[in-house]
Amino acid sequence: MTVTQKIIWNEFKDYFWITLGLLLYTFGWTFFLVPYEIVTGGVTGMSAIVFYATNGSGHGIPIMLTYFTINFLLLVVALKVMGWKFMVKTVYAIVMLSILLGVAQDIITDENGKMIRLLGDQDFMSLVLGCVMTGTSLAIVFLHNGSTGGTDIIAAVINKYHNMSLGTILIFVDLLIIGSSFPVFIYLRGYPITEATYKIVFGLCTMVIENFMLDYVMNSRRESVQFMIFSRKHMEIANAIGTQMNHGVTILDGHGWYTGQEMKVLCILAKKNESQYMFRLIKMIDPNAFVSQSAVIGVYGEGFDEMKVRLPKNKKKGAAPPQSPNTHPQHLSKGGEHGKEQHQSPNTNHQS
């Protein structure tokens, strides 16, 4: 497969998974949240509030119309302020989700104009199921380089001009959207204060559950592990991992306390979902190898996550970063994903 073919194939996979995520989002949000008048954050939450405010009994302003209009205005702002970065997939997601929301709303609405409640009077159970689906679907979209636009655009624009984190901005905007539904339920829908408060509390619950699922799915996909491999056939294992898995290998010097023998130790950082293939590779070469696998909190660098930290504004360009006085690795050879260099540690003691 040529480089061009690989790029096309990767793009096709991204769009396939983004579409799948949008389908799951549409099902969870339209079938389990909207019929129970549960308010969520984001542009879909705004669209739902407009729908509820204009009677919401099947004859209000369609959700797809409000969703598309708000996102279109936000895209105009984003194009002017942020440029074309990530715009193609965002536009695709907005158009596709608008169409899916319109179709789903027609399906869930009966002939009398009322939306069907699939779980009867089980409001909270419907909330949980709906948020599990929407949170999971958003994670699928984000993991494949997609975006649903909406309040993400607002957060990005504010973050460009003010020193506020994206998470803080999104929470503030979602709280504002959910809170704005309170007068809608009281004055336009005629609900008593207790029931309107009940709706607001449900809206806050949607934030917690949806964000939990979003973080859980994304972190499970990004989770990394560290392997420490003790084997007499360390070079064969290192060559196999480097060539077949395209991973860098760090070779450490080990010294057994009991035997007094020297041994090379391989240190590899990899994604958790690569563990099974790693073990199979090691076992094929040396079934008697001693292998330690441990979870790591985070791995940053080429092939893993990016270090997303804000540097001081007054930092001089070209200034050398501070160095630890006890860090003097001896570089052996190029190659690898963790650090792009293999280095030899002077003393790593382990009983062999």
Q: What topology does this entry show?
A:
Layout: H1 3-32, H2 42-53, H3 63-81, H4 87-108, H5 123-143, H6 151-161, H7 166-188, H8 193-222, E1 224-230, H9 234-244, E2 250-255, E3 262-271, H10 275-285, E4 290-296, E5 330-334, E6 341-344, E7 348-349
Parallel strand pairs: 2-7
Antiparallel strand pairs: 1-3, 1-4, 2-3, 5-6
Helix pairs in contact: 1-4, 1-5, 2-3, 2-7, 3-4, 3-6, 5-8, 6-7, 7-8, 9-10
Overview in brief:
It contains ten helices and seven strands. With 352 residues, the chain is α+β, with helices and mostly antiparallel strands.
Shape: elongated
Unreliable stretches: 327-352
SS summary, helix count: 10
Mean pLDDT: 80
Q: What's the end-to-end separation, in Å?
A: 44 Å
SSE order, one letter for each helix or strand: HHHHHHHHEHEEHEEEE
| Physical arrangement of strands within the biggest beta sheet | 4-1-3-2-7
The radius of gyration over CA amounts to 26 Å
In this structure, how is the largest beta sheet organized? 5 strands, mixed
| Secondary structural class | alpha+beta
Classify the beta-strand content into a percent band.
5-15%
Question: What fraction, in percent, of the residue positions are helical?
Answer: 40-55%
How many DSSP E strands? 7
Describe the overall structure.
The chain has 352 residues and is of the alpha+beta class. It has 10 helices and 7 strands. It has helices at residues 3-32, 42-53, 63-81, 87-108, 123-143, 151-161, 166-188, 193-222, 234-244, 275-285, and strands at residues 224-230, 250-255, 262-271, 290-296, 330-334, 341-344, 348-349. Strands 4-1-3-2-7 form a 5-stranded mixed beta sheet, with no helix packed on it. The model is unreliable at 327-352 (pLDDT under 50).
